[in-house]
Amino acid sequence: MGLSPFEVAQEQVQDKEKQRVLGFIPNFYVSYAPHPAPLTSKQKFARAWKTTVDPVSFGLIGVIAGIQQAQNAFSGYGQGAEGYGKRYGTPYADFVSGTFIGSAILPSLLKQDPRYFYKGSGSKRSRILYALANSVICKGDNGDWQPNYSSILGNLAAGAISNLYYPAKDRDGVGLTFEGGAIGIGATAGANLIQEFLIRKLTPKAPNNDPAKP
């Protein structure tokens, strides 16, 4: 008997969990297969959970907090261990809310796929345009390309939530929300370019599937 769509997707999810840049940095939101099985809601939430509790994620947040501490960013948090703890909690809360809202909750509700589909072929210009476009479009669970409402609304929602815990003087209401959303889209575009041209070369266990067609 052949595998069910869920079983196929589960096998592909397990393969993705082995995709680590330089062998240790999680890289779970890219697919090198041209036509992967759609993820179920359960799989979308499981992937978000594994990303947010990965030890490397905790370590990277710690580095960000250390830089903010050294620069006295968000001075309302103060210094010392308490200030560092608050600076650690803030970007981690941003990370968790953005990951779950933009990569699990909304993709489940809107039936969209949170993964980046590696192109890997064509001219350099076409690959650049493809990577940039994927910051605002995505594949639906039905395989069709569509506006990436999950990511865009997820970035806006995460920005709005951040107004609840940033120091009062660093909050900017609607301005901070849309600024965070714009930064999120730009960050996604940048990450896509890195995925398209660099990350696969640095991922020892990346599968050798044929690249996806645009």
Give a concise summary.
The protein is mainly alpha-helical. Helices cover 57% and strands 7% of the residues.
Fold and architecture overview:
Helix content is 57%, strand content 7%. With 214 residues, the chain is mainly α. It has a two-stranded antiparallel sheet with strand order 1-2. It has a two-stranded parallel ribbon with strand order 3-4. Strand 1 (20-21) and strand 2 (25-26) form a beta hairpin. The longest helix has 31 residues, at 80-110. The radius of gyration is 18 Å and the shape is globular. The chain starts with a helix and ends in a 17-residue tail after the last helix.
Instruction: Bin the strand percentage.
Output: 5-15%
Uncertain segments of ≥5 residues (pLDDT<50)? 209-214
Tally the helices: what do you get?
Answer: 7
Distance between the termini: 32 Å
Element-by-element helix/strand order: HEEEHHHEHEEHH
Q: Whole-number average pLDDT?
A: 84
Q: Into which percent range does the helicity of residues fall?
A: 55-70%
Number of domains: 1
Overall geometry: globular
> Largest sheet, order of strands side by side?
1-2
CA radius of gyration: 18 Å
The largest sheet is:
2 strands, antiparallel
Counting helices, strands and paired strands, the structural category is: mainly alpha
Number of strands: 6
Summarize the SSE layout with pairings.
Blueprint: H1 5-16, E1 20-21, E2 25-26, E3 30-31, H2 41-52, H3 55-71, H4 80-110, E4 116-117, H5 124-133, E5 137-139, E6 145-147, H6 149-162, H7 173-197
Parallel strand pairs: 3-4
Antiparallel strand pairs: 1-2, 5-6
Helix pairs in contact: 2-4, 3-4, 4-6, 5-7, 6-7
